[in-house]
UniProtKB/TrEMBL annotation:
Species lineage: Bacteria, Bacillati, Actinomycetota, Actinomycetes, Kitasatosporales
Organism: Streptomyces netropsis
Cited InterPro entries: FAD-dep_OxRdtase_2_FAD-bd (IPR003953), FAD/NAD-bd_sf (IPR036188), Fum_R/Succ_DH_flav-like_C_sf (IPR037099), Fum_Rdtase/Succ_DH_flav-like_C (IPR015939), NadB (IPR005288), Succ_DH/fumarate_Rdtase_cat_sf (IPR027477)
Reactions accelerated catalytically: L-aspartate + O2 = iminosuccinate + H2O2
Family per similarity comment: Belongs to the FAD-dependent oxidoreductase 2 family. NadB subfamily.
Coarse class of the protein's main subcellular location: cytoplasm
Name of this protein: L-aspartate oxidase
Sorted UniProt keywords: FAD, Flavoprotein, Oxidoreductase, Pyridine nucleotide biosynthesis
Residue intervals of the FAD-dependent oxidoreductase 2 FAD-binding domain: 18-398
Signal sequence residues: none
Enzyme Commission number, as recorded: 1.4.3.16
GO biological process, one term: 'de novo' NAD+ biosynthetic process from L-aspartate
Described purpose of this protein according to its UniProt entry: Catalyzes the oxidation of L-aspartate to iminoaspartate, the first step in the de novo biosynthesis of NAD(+).
Length: 567
């Protein structure tokens, strides 16, 4: 039973688990490992292959106060500054104090970080907004790939059940309205095929981001906002969706480039590369005390401004002074990506422009990862824990995934009910008051609308136009369209696009990564607070604001009827 569900065939199969985890990045796999270690039967559902999530693409690394002289307090200060007044200090404090040990546990799980050959100490680099070298990396610029490798191996070694190539559709609720599983569609051959259901005592969304809502993004093709859309349809509250982070330095591949674009890590600037215009002028010097290493939103805005001033489509990142050896050893992934596109960073500056990178908002959770629906958790990019505020500090996301995954696993172990309730997952998945579907042909249009109207630069006019065009697509939706992966993904993209635009329109100020050209200043008296959005059964959006910059407590919409026990 859900409030609204996607139009989909009746589930043909059902399996049971204590915990179903949707997603296989650092957040999902860490929850799965910790829950399994506590004795729970865990099923991991992932949209592509186990190692295909966003984590694999992370280059820069994982931020934690591990270095000599660094402290959680300094990490907290940098995070709060980047978050532009909207971080939850409690959530950030949790992140930075629990972070260093969480990284050590990740190392114990098998991840290998780059170390100094003489001392054996972890090598740390700098990125935008960090006043210290604080970013641990692996394989030079292949940190996410190494974390993903280690966690996938650990999940396989632990014998955790995985369902690959499966798109999650909707949340299932038990008769009391508590989250009790998901419906999903397995794309391809395997033990399960077609639409089915997983019944579970706890559901953890770790589905990653929604970068594919824009034309150009650093996110992989799987990042279509499925978790946020599922949560909205189920009645959960989402927050801060207007704060989309545009990474300043994405390899510029031409005005028509669409889909996933190669990232040029902040760490390249952290190691001393310069941002320059076509005349070689370092335009960030003097614009901020940290110049090229200012927080990401400031660098993205600096690049956009210079592009506007010079009438160009990109700027350049100049790291020629690194030399061939450093490029090959420190940034092998970026070097290979640039060369694959005919650019040699050893001999020429890299053309770069901002592209959609990270959703700072998402499904609103408390410090235990609990959403506003009892039994539904969210972790990683899909979640809004309050850690990122209006702008995520570079390399805080892998850490957030790790720290909050462990907290979720602990909460599930302490509170999940002892037995699955008596209800039929297949019937529940098929019964719902309303179903809808958007035609796959709308996907490109949604991405173009979002890029034109709600990209790095926004205004009331551009957002109103985007909202009207998205509403038009929404009124054309039909339950008659053929259900299938592309239609389900497009339906999810449309829903998250509508919420993002509604929130961006409502927030009449410029703050963090939300840049309103018509409201260029930060307005602490009116806008030092969050926007909360839910989806009504008639698919209209209910938007409200918090009283202050602090989130109110997450109150489950449903209280469990029976006391919960350890699984
Ligand atoms: C990067 O390497 O620049 C990306 C790191 C991040 O998004 O945190």
């Amino acid at each position: 039973m859900t409030g609204i569900r996607l139009h989909a065939p009746r589930p043909g199969w059902a399996v049971d688990a204590d915990v179903v985890v949707i997603g296989s990045g650092v957040a999902g796999l860490t929850v799965a490992l910790r829950c399994a270690a506590a004795g729970a039967k865990v099923t991991v559902v992932t949209k592509a292959r186990l190692d295909d999530g966003s984590t694999r693409w992370a280059q820069g690394g994982i931020a934690a106060a591990l270095g000599e002289g660094d402290t959680p307090e300094q990490h907290l200060d940098d995070t709060l500054v980047a978050g532009a007044g909207l971080c939850s200090e409690e959530a950030v404090r949790t992140l930075v104090t629990e972070g260093p040990d969480a990284v050590r546990r990740l190392i114990a799980t098998g991840a290998t970080f780059d170390t100094d050959a003489d001392t054996g100490e972890i090598l740390l680099t700098r990125e935008g907004g960090h006043h210290r070298r604080r970013i641990a990396h692996a394989g030079g610029d292949a940190t996410g790939a190494e974390i993903s490798r280690a966690l996938v191996q650990a999940v396989r070694d632990a014998g955790i059940e995985t369902v690959e190539n499966a798109l999650v559709l909707d949340l299932l609720k038990d008769p009391e309205g508590r989250a009790a599983g998901v419906s999903l569609h397995v794309m391809g051959e395997g033990r399960h095929d077609g639409v089915g259901a997983v019944r579970a005592k706890a559901v953890v969304l770790a589905t990653g981001g929604m970068g594919q809502v824009f034309s150009a993004t650093t996110n992989p093709a799987v990042s279509t906002g499925d978790g946020v859309a599922l949560a909205l349809r189920a009645g959960a509250e989402v927050s801060d969706l207007e704060f989309v982070q545009f990474h300043p330095t994405v390899l510029w591949l031409g005005p028509d480039a669409e889909g996933q674009q190669p990232l040029v890590s902040e760490a390249v600037r952290g190691e001393g590369a310069h941002l320059v215009d076509a005349d070689g002028h370092r335009f960030m010097v003097g614009a901020h005390e940290l110049a090229e290493l200012a927080p990401r939103d400031i660098v993205a805005k600096g690049i956009m401004r210079r592009m506007q001033e010079t009438g160009t489509e990109h700027m350049y990142l100049d790291g020629r002074h690194f030399g061939a050896e450093m490029w090959a050893s420190r940034f092998p992934t970026i070097l290979a990506a640039c060369r694959a596109h005919g650019i040699d960073p050893v001999t020429e500056p890299i053309p770069v422009a901002p592209a959609a990178h990270y959703a700072s908002g998402g499904v609103r959770t408390d410090l235990h990862g609990r959403s506003t629906i009892d039994g539904l958790y969210a972790c990683g990019e899909v979640a809004c824990t309050g850690v990122h505020g209006a702008n995520r500090l570079a390399s805080n996301s892998l850490l957030e995934g790790l720290v909050f995954a462990e907290r979720i696993a602990a909460d599930i172990a302490a509170t999940a009910p002892g037995a699955l309730p008596h209800w039929d997952a297949r019937t529940a998945a098929a019964e719902s008051p309303a179903t809808f579907l958007v035609a796959p042909s709308a996907r490109l249009e949604i991405q173009r609308i979002m890029t034109a109207g709600a990209g790095v630069l926004r205004s009331a006019d551009s957002l109103k136009q985007a909202a009207a065009r998205l509403e038009r697509i929404d009124t054309e939706v039909s339950a008659q369209d053929e259900p299938g992966t592309e239609a389900w993904e497009t339906t999810n993209l449309l829903l998250v696009a509508r919420v993002l635009v509604a929130a961006a329109l409502r927030r009449e100020e410029t703050r963090g990564c939300h840049w309103r050209e018509d409201r260029p200043d930060r307005d602490d008296s009116g806008w030092g607070r969050h926007l909360l959005v839910t989806l009504r059964p008639d698919r209209t959006l209910a938007v409200s604001t918090t009283e202050t910059a602090a989130f109110p407590p997450v109150s489950p919409l449903v209280t469990p009827a029976a006391p919960r026990r350890t699984p």
